Amino acid sequence: MEQQNSQAFTLTGGRVIDPANGRDELADVAVEQTGRIAWIKPSGAPPIGEEVPVEGLVVCPGLVDIHVHLREPGFEHKETVATGTRAAVAGGFTTVCCMPNTNPPLDRPQRIAELQQTIAEEAWSNVYVLGAATVGNQRRELTDFDALLEAGCASITDDAAPLQSTSQMQQALAKLAASGRPFLAHLEDEELSGEGVINAGAVSHQLQVPGQSSHSEVAALRRWAQAAASVPQARLHLLHVSTAETVAEAQMLRAGNTFFQLSLETAPHYFCLTEEAILESGADAKVNPPLRTERDRQAILEAVIDGDIQIIATDHAPHTPPEKAQGLIDAPAGLTGLEICVGVVLTHLFHTGRLGLSEILAKMTCNPAVLLGLPAGTLTPGGPADITIIDPYKQWVVDPAHFYSKGRNTPFAGHKLRGRTWGTIKTGQFLVREGELCEDAKLKDRVSTDD
Ligand SMILES: [Zn+2]
After folding, report:
1. How far is the CA of 134 from the centre of ligand 1 (A)?
2. N or C: which terminus of the chain carries fewer CB neighbours within 10 A?
3. Mean pLDDT of 330-344
């Protein structure tokens, strides 16, 4: 199949960082024709196949993003499996999880199967589907979690349709507990967030648009914690954490009990930007949860650095330029993120001296993979050669016109970044090389898959 098209090669002279295996050294990585990693040896070993020199570059496991909106089915004008996963591999992600707030929502096995068929035909990266927690994302009735997991869902989430009632949260945690999977929770108390379109504060006041209270997030967390207290083996993962209060509450919950397992995720915009970005980028900086204050940004940054936040995900949420041109109040919330994540994260964490590459990459490889039990996130001989190669010093300027994503909506447009994906290898095949997407590589793959 696809392996027949792969050629053996050896990446030589790179800095190999594999956080899962505690590796950070100059080494060569050999990939055999089968698409698997043959060996990892100190630089200078006799290479197999083509020699691909990667001196000065970082060789790491294919990046994993567990929070991506691919928009298919139903919103193909915003993004598709094909365009979203091209954006993913362009950004260095070989594995993504897609969110279920599609139309129709991904709330039953038949819909999961249909999307998996599209993924098999169209996707450039590995894609795992996350199932919707409620039927039709309506919050009235929980879906059949077991059936969704059996259909292949990586887990269950209420992203974009946040649960509000404590009893429903409790039922959701209980239904999922036996599977060992975490519930992926979008924290939002809608009574507090109300009609708010950006963070409630100086900027919403200045622009005279409705603000969303930042207490909305921690209020939802308190309700979830209450729900989890009565569920043995409950596992809760907090999506896109954005406030200082949420971080503090999570620290307190962790310190105070061990009766449920709690993990935290954030997106790069929450530790790099504040609500001030709205003044410059308008609706292209509108996202939910909204960009917050400098105090919140600092708290999220510290939590990423000290490990209270274990996972960085993009919450890639593309919309079309006309949709985003409707103004702050009417434009949909969401930012694209896949193609800039490596640059943004390295610029703000590594080049500022705040966090080492291995610690950064753990949050984008093994940590998310382990959370959802995905077969990804490490460089292991005998395992699939899903590899990302990063030029950590490459300087570039974000130009959304060059995105592979259909979305152009990012407040990072025009930002100067340092660090960029140089290569993306999936199952031993270069999909990105020297920063360019390998269009024909995918075509060969397609032909062999059709056989
Ligand atoms: Zn969300």
Report:
1. 15
2. C
3. 98
What are the boundaries of each domain within the chain? 2-59+384-450, 62-372
Q: Is 265 helix (H, G, I), strand (E, B) or coil?
A: strand
Domain 2-59+384-450 class in CATH: mainly beta
> Mind listing the pLDDT tens digit for each residue in 66-108?
999 999 999 999 999 999 999 999 999 999 999 999 999 999 9
For 118-139, give the DSSP string: HHHHH-SSEEEEEEESBGGG-S
CA distance 306 to 300: 10
- CATH of 62-372 given 3.40.1650.10, 3.20.20.140, 3.40.50.2000, 3.65.10.10: 3.20.20.140
Single-letter amino acid, residue 227: A
Same fold, 2-59+384-450 and 62-372: no
On the 0-12 / 13-18 / 19+ scale of CB atoms within 10 A, 44 is exposed
Q: How many angstroms separate the alpha carbon of residue 361 from the centre of ligand 1?
A: 23
Query: Annotated catalytic, 315?
Result: yes
pTM of the model: 0.96
Distance (angstroms) between ligand 1 centre and the Cα of 384 equals 31
How many angstroms does the Cα of residue 70 sit away from the middle of ligand 1? 13
pLDDT confidence tier of residue 272, bands split at 50, 70 and 90? very high
CA distance 29 to 15: 10
Candidate list 65, 284, 296, 315, residue with the active-site label: 315
pLDDT (average), residues 193-207: 95
Q: What is the pLDDT of residues 315-331, one digit of tens each?
A: 999 999 999 999 999 99
